[in-house]
Structure formats: structure tokens, C-alpha cells
Amino acid sequence: MNHLIIWKETSLFLGSNNTGISEHQHPMIQLILCINDLFLWKDTNRNWIKKKTLFISPNQTHQCKD
Q1: Which helix H or strand E contains 8, and what residues bound it?
Q2: What is the residue-wise DSSP string for 19-57?
Q3: Which pLDDT score is estimated for 52?
Q4: Helix (H) / strand (E) containing 13
Q5: Which of 14, 23, 24, 37 lies in disulfide reach of 3, CB 3.0 to 4.6 Å?
Q6: In the predicted model, what is the mean pLDDT of residues 47-53?
Q7: Using the 8-state DSSP alphabet, how is residue 59 labeled?
Q8: CA distance 20 to 39
Q9: pLDDT of residue 1
Q10: Average pLDDT of the chain?
Q11: From CA 17, how far away is CA 23, in angstroms rounded?
């Protein structure tokens, strides 16, 4: 089950995303925590790296997939 909770200038998404996320950026910090498995994150050299957690700075271009 997915949940989206939004406060003034803040949002929190709890759930899973079974689709790949295309390369993008946004003006907010992002913290990704994977509870059960790992996900793939494309690093600055365009290599896919397996991750369990990830902290993304504002306006940093990033891409993830499961």
C-alpha cells in the first residue's frame, strides 16, 4: 500500500515503486530507504550501483530503478 503525506513545503511518500524513474532533478532533498531489497541508482559516471539507502541533494540529477 502506498501513502503520500503532504505538509507545507514538505512531502513524504511511503510505499513502493515498481517502475523505473527516468533521469530528473527537483529542488528538494530526497532520502530513499529500502526495507526489503536493494534498488539501482545511476552514479555520476552513468554506472548502475546497488543501494539500500541514498540521500540526494537538491537539484542533483538522479535516476533509480528496482
Answers
A1: none
A2: S-EEEE--SS-EEEE-SSS-EEEE-TTS-EEEESEEEE-
A3: 94
A4: strand 10-14
A5: 14
A6: 94
A7: T
A8: 10
A9: 64
A10: 86
A11: 15
Rounded Cα gap, residues 45 and 53, in angstroms: 19
Answer whether 42's CB lies under 8 Å from 50's CB: no
Alpha-carbon distance of 40 to 66, in angstroms, equals 6
Rounded Cα distance between 44 and 36, Å, is 26
The residue ranges of every structural domain in the chain are 17-65
Q: What is the pTM of this model?
A: 0.71
Q: Give the integer Cα–Cα distance in Å for 7 and 32.
A: 18
Contacts 24+ apart (CB under 8 A), 57-61: 57/29, 58/26, 58/27, 58/28, 58/29, 59/25, 59/26, 59/27, 60/25, 61/23, 61/24, 61/25
